């Protein structure tokens, strides 16, 4: 049964499949909390202390960065995919969103449960204002308070957390949405991506700059021009929580010196 009002079965399969959207009833109860609870310093600290040994992290700061990477995928993926591919708006607010942090056998097991799965359909002649509202709720209303809390508790750089977010948004639009079959839908997705990374005002993110624009550095061509990589400006510390040591494919620490 499709629990999401206004979304077709085929659309729900994508959102609930690779993008891991879930209903409230499907949440991982022992390893989840309402997003607003993470703004409490004591709750945030306890979650990070519980998660750190599970993911092999040596410090709260590194745990916060790696949790932020996972949350960036979950919180931006379904929301922006629904917005751009389906013209449907999910409510990702502090009180409607659950934060899951399950991690089993070296892999994240977390999903994105929402209390209400009702979707707002984009008004045909007011889509730009609607898009602005959806993006502002996601970034300034949800992610900015979460990143502020993780920074306050651990000291992890807010720019690391925002680049974690930016990397996930780039991947969503360049690797997933760019491959949709419908030409008109691909064009709408490309326009949304251009707006997010070029025109969206800083207020959309609750910041004094647009982090999606700031971190959108040119790609580096590798392997005789056959592979394009957009190397990060900041390191997410993944290598410090892996054994044996591994680096992300976009890690600035492995960027060829000649291209720095």
TrEMBL record:
InterPro entries named in the record: FhuF_C, IucA/IucC-like_C
One Pfam entry name: FhuF_C
Domain (Aerobactin siderophore biosynthesis IucA/IucC-like C-terminal): residue spans on this chain: 67-181
Domain Ferric siderophore reductase C-terminal residues, every copy: 232-253
Protein's name according to its UniProt entry: (2Fe-2S)-binding protein
């Amino acid at each position: 049964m499709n629990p999401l009002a206004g979304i077709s079965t085929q659309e729900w399969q994508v959102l609930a499949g690779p993008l891991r959207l879930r209903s409230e009833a499907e949440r991982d109860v022992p390893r989840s909390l309402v997003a607003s609870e993470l703004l409490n310093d004591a709750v945030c600290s306890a979650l990070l202390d519980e998660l750190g040994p599970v993911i092999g992290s040596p410090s709260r700061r590194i745990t916060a960065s790696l949790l932020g990477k996972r949350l960036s995928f979950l919180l931006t993926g379904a929301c922006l995919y629904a917005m751009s591919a389906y013209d449907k708006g999910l409510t990702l607010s502090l009180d409607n969103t659950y934060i899951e942090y399950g991690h089993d056998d070296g892999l994240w097991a977390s999903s994105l449960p929402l209390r209400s799965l009702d979707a707002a359909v984009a008004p045909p002649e007011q889509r730009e204002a609607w898009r602005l509202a959806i993006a502002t709720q996601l970034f300034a209303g949800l992610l900015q308070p979460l990143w502020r809390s993780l920074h306050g508790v651990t000291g992890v750089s807010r720019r690391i957390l925002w680049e974690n977010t930016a990397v996930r948004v780039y991947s969503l639009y360049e690797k997933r949405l760019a491959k949709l079959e419908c030409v008109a839908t691909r064009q709408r997705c490309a326009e949304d991506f251009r707006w997010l990374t070029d025109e969206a005002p800083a207020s959309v993110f609750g910041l004094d700059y647009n982090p999606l624009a700031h971190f959108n550095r040119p790609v580096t061509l590798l392997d005789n021009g056959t592979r394009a990589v957009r190397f990060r400006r900041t390191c997410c510390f993944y290598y410090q929580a892996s054994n044996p040591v591994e680096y992300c494919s976009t890690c600035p620490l492995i960027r060829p010196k000649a291209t720095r």
